[in-house]
Amino acid sequence: MKKLPDRPELNADMCDTADDGSLYIVNISRRAFLKDVALTGFVLAAGFPALIRADETAAPVGNKYGADAMPHGWVDNPLVFIAIAADGIVTIVCHRSEMGQGVRTSLPMVVADELETDWQKVRVEQAPGDEVRYGNQDTDGSRSMRHFFLPMRRAGAAARTMLEAAAAAQWRVPVQEVRAEQDHVFHPATGRTLGYGQLAEAAAKLPVPARETLRLKNPADFRYIGKGQAGIYDGQDMVTGRVKSNTIKSE
Description:
Layout: H1 8-14, E1 15-17, E2 23-25, H2 30-40, H3 48-56, H4 78-81, E3 82-84, E4 90-94, H5 103-115, E5 122-126, H6 131-134, H7 144-171, E6 179-181, E7 184-187, E8 192-195, H8 196-204, H9 235-239
């Protein structure tokens, strides 16, 4: 997939920065959004702190709101959404229907960013209809990103943490001494490195980390989210009629 050049003047219209460095939502018209996408490729325009507040602190504990109030709610288990092959290819499952809104790019891109994987190595697989496994799959009301931004971040962060733990165990070093970056886990003290493909099998056997222990990336460190550098995942196939199906079907 060819990377497109930065268009800062367009990105700034979609996602702005506060004085403290945080990002927040800027409303744009549908017409302007479609025009910018046509010029630059897909841009994930999301207000990260705003989404965090809306998802986790907007309602008192025990209340049901947002995705929690929908049938089957949300799922953030990395073993459900992420598979890493021995050759390092990362498959990310999209559980919402693609109908031109770019969800087959946006949700996997969130996972890839937190996972610290090269977007060029990502393959997207459409999920079947199975809300018990994937969480709510109703694709309506512009809710996919609002409801699944944080769950997809957590899925990516959990997978990254498991890969780091697998590498630390193999090297017999504290996990605090290793770090994951762009499809590899590094041990800076000794210069050792292992690729995700080498670690995937061992990592998949480890317990999934508890949500409250996950280390999410600082938005300032995002590689893809809000950058406007990645084109729509299968946009070329869509416009040339090569996509078999982007919609959810029950098995």
